[in-house]
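User: I'm preparing a small set of examples for a lab meeting where we compare how different chains pack in three dimensions. I only have the primary sequence for this one, and I'd like the structure in C-alpha cell form so I can line it up with the others. Please keep the answer compact; I'll paste it straight into my notes.
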Amino acid sequence: MAVRLAAGGDTAPASGDADEEFQVSWWVTPDGHTHAEDSPEGLARALAWATGRWPDRHTFAAVLADPVPATLLG
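Assistant: Understood. Below is the C-alpha cell output for the 74-residue chain.
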C-alpha cells in the first residue's frame, strides 16, 4: 500500500518535502483500526502494534513465515 503524507498532518514527511509517498506494510487509520498487507512482515508488525508487543514483531514474522515449532526453538 502506498500512503501519501502531507505537511501539516500529524506525521511530517521525513525529508521535509510538502508531499511524499511511502510504501508501507501496515497502518493505523484515524479511527484506530490496524490494517496490514498480506505478508508475514506486515501482519507481524500490525499484530505487534495492536497487542502492545512491538519488540516481538520479528518473532511474530518468523512464526507467520514458518509456523513449525522449530522456528520458536531455533
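A couple of notes for your slides: Residues 40-50 form the longest helix (11 residues). Strands lie at 2-6, 19-23, 26-28, 34-36.

User: Perfect, thanks.
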